[in-house]
TrEMBL record, chains A, B:
GO molecular function (one): transcription cis-regulatory region binding
Domain HTH lacI-type intervals: 13-67
Pfam families named among the record's database cross-references: LacI, Peripla_BP_3
Origin species: Labedella phragmitis
Gene3D superfamilies in the cross-refs: 3.40.50.2300, lambda repressor-like DNA-binding domains
SMART domains given in the database record: HTH_LACI (SM00354)
Keyword terms of this UniProt record: DNA-binding, Transcription, Transcription regulation
PANTHER family assigned to the protein according to its UniProt record, in alphabetical order: HTH-TYPE TRANSCRIPTIONAL REGULATOR GALS, LACI-RELATED TRANSCRIPTIONAL REPRESSOR
UniProt-listed SUPFAM superfamilies: lambda repressor-like DNA-binding domains (SSF47413), Periplasmic binding protein-like I (SSF53822)
Domain HTH cro/C1-type as annotated: residue spans: 14-57
InterPro entries, A to Z: Cro/C1-type_HTH (IPR001387), HTH_LacI (IPR000843), LacI/GalR-like_sensor (IPR046335), Lambda_DNA-bd_dom_sf (IPR010982), Peripla_BP_I (IPR028082)
Name the UniProt record assigns to this protein: LacI family transcriptional regulator
Amino acid sequence: MPTVTGHPERHAPTLEAVAEAAGVSRATVSRVVNGSPSVRGAVVEAVQKAIADLGYVPNRAARSLASSRTHSIALLVPEDVSRFFGDPYFASFTGGLDRRLADTEYVLNLVVARDDPGRKAVRYVRGGNVDGAIVVSHHRGHDFLRQLEGSVPIVYGGRPDVALSAEPVFVDVDNEAGGHLATRHLIESGRTRIATIAGPEDMPAALDRLAGFRRALREAGLPDDAVVHANFTASGGAEAMRTLLSRHSDLDAVFSASDLMASGALTALASRGVDVPGDVAIVGYDDSPAATWGEIGLTTVRQPSELMGATAVDVLLRLLAGDADVPHENIVQTELVIRDSA
Amino acid sequence: MPTVTGHPERHAPTLEAVAEAAGVSRATVSRVVNGSPSVRGAVVEAVQKAIADLGYVPNRAARSLASSRTHSIALLVPEDVSRFFGDPYFASFTGGLDRRLADTEYVLNLVVARDDPGRKAVRYVRGGNVDGAIVVSHHRGHDFLRQLEGSVPIVYGGRPDVALSAEPVFVDVDNEAGGHLATRHLIESGRTRIATIAGPEDMPAALDRLAGFRRALREAGLPDDAVVHANFTASGGAEAMRTLLSRHSDLDAVFSASDLMASGALTALASRGVDVPGDVAIVGYDDSPAATWGEIGLTTVRQPSELMGATAVDVLLRLLAGDADVPHENIVQTELVIRDSA
DNA sequence: TTGTATGCGTTATCAG
DNA sequence: CTGATAACGCATACAA
């Protein structure tokens, strides 16, 4: 059995060693490492050379102990990880987080509050283990998030639907504008009888998209009464589509509030022999993988999820830097991705 | 900043404070916290009470500095995070990791080695920032992984296809058995002319599944010559299906090495008016969301990805505990999920 | 079984 | 601009 636990590592070089090699004191090396402006140029160079020669890497624990800053931030996920990452939107959001974080010396800690009602996670965050936190995939009723207030700076992915005592800082997408964008595209391509498969009535994002849909139609002087709600699933979308067809035989376009529902709608249309986009045009929402898995590419509204992740980091970093006037609402815009269906 | 319910921020209590409250020394408190067996029962209780009263939480940095163990492990992802988490398999794997880790005091650090050829990530892992690492989604050519050897215990998700100087510890799924399982199911349901849409010829997992397919057919005395390779995409699967149909008109079943390819095959069959599973039965692989998105549920081979994540943690924990004889190969078995298509 | 003393590697507060 | 020197909170040999 090969040795697995052996540490052939010498003693990792410390500030002390670098100081000696550079002929200065520990304090000076520390200053150079932390980019203090008050060090003579020549000394800086000498120290940096010593650092490079010895391959010095600051000890995180020691640094953290002395400065009481951890240089790590929590990605707090209040639900099952598989579900969270299984959602392409969050996968992409996390990608944005990471990419933006790569330029910094911050590290991402994955903190999950699944079974325990947030106790362990709250203790972790409050326990001084991280400098800040980004909370994602939070839902109404996640009241334990309140216990995070007053500990470290927090940025929410999506406007939190929780009773917080202070105004939360969040990044969100402009769903109303997204719904408007999609519907406007249908209008501009000459459609006149446009329906929507809306999302659940208790989800703010869904309602906002619906509002955007309605506004676009009103602005164009078209009727906005063809609305059916579904539950963001493919089968729900299929059923909604059938309902719409039976109610509005003159239908020539549909805005679906999610790609998954749109894919269900597409199969429903196909089985009825309705040509897409010939007879009926359809625009989805999300630009999820489902948008390109079918035979005909789905024209859809992309949420800049990666940008949102990056933005969340930006905002948090500003908060950590003590920036007093960071905006609480950070709204990013959607974008239309045109494929075959509309 | 509004006052938060609970502890008024003050100075977080330290060992010192607990010691004083319990009327013992810091060392004793430390022993209790770390579960040392050599502390009198009465004292243990007293200390634990003090801990509870004061809401004491050990300072990670101090602990780490003193013990040179970090209690955190790295999840090393050598590629784009979005792609990694966008894959349901990895999302689920990570879920397994997390769930198993929840019982411990270890924390997961997300370490990504995307653009930089591993330099930063390697430095991080070697820099003593983590006690161990779990490496996932590694590909051939990721030679920088070699630089991790000898630093901390490492467990790979999937057998690494990299020239390592020591025998790597990994968890993997038995792809050959999976291919065999799928094919055997088709045989047992009475199919006699069975083809396969295999994965890329340069991927070990794909080849293993193909080998399982062939073995099952040989064992049943059936021909194993109906093989077409595709690239694990839906469109690739559709094209492969068309090729198979043209070559083997007597086809009555197909094993597709991925659900995505199977979904493409399904659309290809549908457009030719072939009934599934009436005329042709089809079994996929992965049990990904794609398996249930279509009109007919896909019978498929599920990879116990979550179990694999949990196993990876188990193995790593044993390594960290200094367990001398942990097996290097940790193989988990696949499972057949029967739906409509076969 | 328990307490004492020391050190872990940095940062930060002073002087100089 | 630079160098001593005291924290930082905990673990752990060593003593008792």
